[in-house]
Every structure is written in C-alpha cells, then in structure tokens.
Batch of 2 targets.
Target 1
Amino acid sequence: MQTLLLWLFYISSFYAFIPGLITRIFGFRVFRRGTSEHEFALTFDDGPDPVYTPKLLDLLKRYDAKATFFVVGSHAEQHPELVKRMYDEGHLIGIHNYVHKSNWLMRPATVKKQIMKTDKIIHSITGERTTYYRPPWGIVNLFDFAKKSQFKIVLWSAMFGDWREKIGADRLTERMLSKLQPGVVMLLHDCGTTAGANLDAPRQMLVALERVLEEAGRLGLQSIRIDDMIEAKEKAPEKQLSRSKLATVKLWLMWDALFHMVFRLKTVHPADPFLHYRYRSYQGAKVTMDNGEVISKGDKVIELHFDNEKLFQMSLKSRSMVHLAIRMIRSMEHDLPSLAHQVMNDPKMSDARALYGVTMINRGPQQFGFKVMDLEEGLFARATRIYLKFLMLIIHPSGQNRLKDHAELLVPKVLLMSMDQLNRRYADNGSHRQQPHARRVVISADHEEEMHDLNLAATAGSPPSAV
Ligand SMILES: [Zn+2]
C-alpha cells in the first residue's frame, strides 16, 4: 500500500507544475484567447478586398472598435491604400501568407518565404514590421520554422462560417452573439475570393457585425487589437490557466499536502518551502555513486521532494524557461547548504548514505553534485509515460507531436548524491569540506540557448528577463 501511494505521489508530483511549464513551452507560441474582463478581439482574414474592406473600416470607425487584419500578401500588394488606411485608423496588421494556400502543401522554407514577402509588403506600406501571423485555415505546420521565428501565431476561439453566403445575416448574428464575451477572439472574413468562400459573403458579415457591435456596446465590451490582448494576458500570468486546469492543480496540491502529512516530510526552510526530505530505505536497483560507493536496496537515504506549490508558482511567474531555470537554481543554492547542515546534525539520520530523488528536471542537477540516472524500467516508468501522454493530449491536441520534440526534458530521472559529496560541497561546519559553501552555479551559454529555443515567442520581442 505504501509503495502504491509512493508511486502515485511521484507521478503527481513531477507533473504538478506541468500546466505552468506547458504554458511556458507551448502556450505562448499559439494565441487563441485573451483573459480580458471587458475586451474581445475582432480578427479579419483574407483581405484586403476593394469592395468590403472600406465598408468594414467605416463600420469599425463608427463604433470606435479596433481590429486585427490578417492580410493575404498578394491582396495587400494590389490594394496598398487599404492597408495604409487600416494602419492609419489604428488597427493591427498581421500576415496570412502571400497567397492563400495551406501550409500543408508547402515546405517550411516556402512558408517562410511567403511570410517574409508579406512582411516586406506591409512594411513598405506602413513603415512598420509585423510580428503576428495566422496560417490559412489555422493549419500550423511550421514547427521547425516557428522555433526560430520572431512571429507569434494567432488563432481564434470562435468562428462562425461567415465565409458562406447562405448562412444569412440573422443566423450569423445569432452565432456571434452566443460567443460574445470577454477574451473571445472572433474569426471573420472581409474578402470572399478564397477557395471555398462565397464572393459576397462579407455582405452578411457586415450586417451581423454591426448588430454585434451594438450589443457589445450595451454589454460594455470593447474590441481591441490582438497585440493589446496578448500584452494584457502576459501581464496577468495567473489568469492564463483555465478554471479546470486550476482545479486540477489544486487537487494535486491537496494530494501533495496529504503526502507530506502521511510521510512526515521535513522542510528545509519552512518559511519559504522549496526542498522537503525524509529518511527512508532505498528501494531501487544497486547503483554506484560518483565516489565509488555502492548503494543497494535497504541502505538508508535522504529522499528529496520539491515543493510543488512553489514550483507551480515559479513556473507561472517566470517569463521564460531560462528565467524559471534560474529561479530553481537559486532556490537549490539557497536550500542545499541548510539541508546538509540539518542532516548532519540529526542523529537519527547519521547512517544515511546518500541524497536521493526522482525528478523530471534532469538537465541542471549535475551542477549541484548529483549523479543523474535513468529510472529503472518498470511499472512506475511506464505509468509516468502514459500519464504524460494523456496530459499532453488534454492540454494540446497536437501535444503528442510536440512532446516528441522535447521528450528528453520530460523524462523522469533518478538523482543521487553521496553524503560525502553533500558535506564537502555544502556543509558549513564540515572540517573536511574542500570548497566554500554555496558555490554559485551558472547556466552555460549552450544550455541557455536551448532553454530559449523552447520558449521562442514568449521572449521574442520582450526585453531579456532580469535575473
Ligand atoms: Zn484565410
């Protein structure tokens, strides 16, 4: 029973902060929805169109509504005056490829060319570069490109089939009103020349939009640009998680608290918990530590646990993966010397032979003197993988593919450090200590770049994180 509980705890504790981490890794890459209280976003694709775009701009002006136009490069080229007018009237201009073609049908290099060409056209008209991109039909197939890109991908949270004329203005109005709420990103079209659309469909859209803007005014809702909506969302990171995700996290944290109680975990700094630990018998396979000592089943070890609430808060508050890594490293530096001191001065722990922990944060721990090892293949390792896949599926529909790209980051590993090493590196009063305590750990440039890659859009365009 205790072993089962332990498994459950491990599985839950590694991933307790994953929603935050995933938001860091994937969440900023694609924007779908805001967290505003009084704002929503109107976005128009496929234009500009010489007939309907001017009418739309008139309408938006009348209601003092700001919108985002994802223009097709070739259309912008034909109607620069309309792009200029969008810009002059305070709307945001984004890219919707040079020709309206799915990214599935193009190689990443071609997609990049399409984007760059359109960016150039927009720049030549407005004098400003854009960093917002919406792929045709929302089909994102440019993972490789996006990794190195400065562009932010903007999708939507509500679409209505407005590209079809037969939907009619009444039904369209109804559909739009049912989705009219703060934070919604509405997808509409101001041009009907795309394959699958009807030429005069935007006429219905304009009728419906006027009614929706009227109602929005009554509700105190304002349409804003996507960049403003993203900025507001990034300023309120705690709101990035949906209610259901927060509920899941809360459940995790309750489980965490229960575990702490049942297993009587000690906390290194109770006022600012980061590391918890307990004295127990080692249960894993025989392993040789860096100093040549062998740990086998039954040996006493100090088992480490991160504070999940703290990790979760850290991941929410960090602006980037690098930032998160730095915070974690600083907390480790802060806690390890105290831990060494506490363990050394606890007679009940005098026969402990190693620090032991299981974690998925397996890139940095070597710097602290830990040996990092693969988890033994078995029920636990399998269960964590299944769980992770499941979680990724819930969090993002294409999560599985994305997971492959970062798989090595999310694999649980075993950490081990001999007591000898702990004392030498961290103990204050050890006479055999060789180094001054709290040696500062630096992130190598390589590591930093790697972490940065993971984060791309999150840091692109924003100032470097203060450390
Ligand atoms: Zn389109």
Target 2
Amino acid sequence: MSEQSTAPVPVSTTFQVVGMTCGHCVAAVTGELTDTVPGVRDVQIDLPTGQVVVTSDQQLDQAKVAAAIDEAGYQLAPGSLS
Ligand SMILES: [Cu+2]
C-alpha cells in the first residue's frame, strides 16, 4: 500500500451481536450495515462468537449501527460498542 494524503484512513470497529445463528443471519447483518451505515467498506462476522468487525472510511455512527442491527433482527451486545 502506498501512502497517499488524499486517501481516507480506514477505521476498524469491533463489536458483538447477539442472536446470529447461521449464514443467513450473517448476510442480513452484513447487508444492513453496508446499506445503512455511512462509510462502511467491509464487514467481517465471526458467527460462533458473534464478533463483528467493520472497516469504514470514517468513524461509525453508533446510532446507525445500532439501528442497522435492530433492523436486521438482532441485538447489539450491551456495552460492546462504546
Ligand atoms: Cu440465521
């Protein structure tokens, strides 16, 4: 990777989502986050632990993240995003 002053520095945010049980859940959460939270580039989800790692162009809007998880039908683990 070359250094370019104009390129945004990706931000990595990790949090925990409760209730995901299969690949469909992962796809739903990934899609909702990608579609509704500004700046999201990549979403990585570890199903067994419910750990979600979001790479984004800017600091994530926590309210939008919470809304996206809720919209997908799951719950943000309390205190995992602060
Ligand atoms: Cu599922």
